[in-house]
Target: N-acetyltransferase domain-containing protein
Amino acid sequence: MQANEYSFFIKPATIEDLPIVYKQILELVEYQNYTPKYKEPIQNLEKYAFGKDKIIHIYCGWLVPFDNPKEGVIVGYTIHFLNFSTFYLRPGIYLEDIYVKDEYRGCGYGKKMLLNLCKIAKENNYTYVELQVLESNKSSIQFYELLKGKPVNGWIQYRLENDGFEKYLKDN
Model:
């Protein structure tokens, strides 16, 4: 596949894209050596990206041949949601996932997808694009640092999960 024979573009995911996005989520889970903790994954993606409870935004990176624009392949995705900073009194974007299929890495598609979110943040006067990266994921850390990303010093992330707080909710 010659890069100059294809066009890369980013667009919001459609419901029809969800099976491909889900497959790529599984690839990311495997890449990170993570054990998924969900049930009804496609239904949850649809509910939270397109339903009345919409809280996430999914964008797909498409590679489309110039000679056949109706054909194309999703080479990656981003999933983000809005958060709010009480320090700035403005929203920000929290990037939950950015993923590019292995065979398309190193072509600049991940950078374009991340910059797409930066553009959305700028256009909407959001404060930042925030994300987390595994300490062991050195290539991603280098990628974010090339784009002038930096760790947030002085903060420790905590997560309260259902199985941890459920007992306390019953007792109080």
Q: What stands out?
A: The radius of gyration is 18 Å.
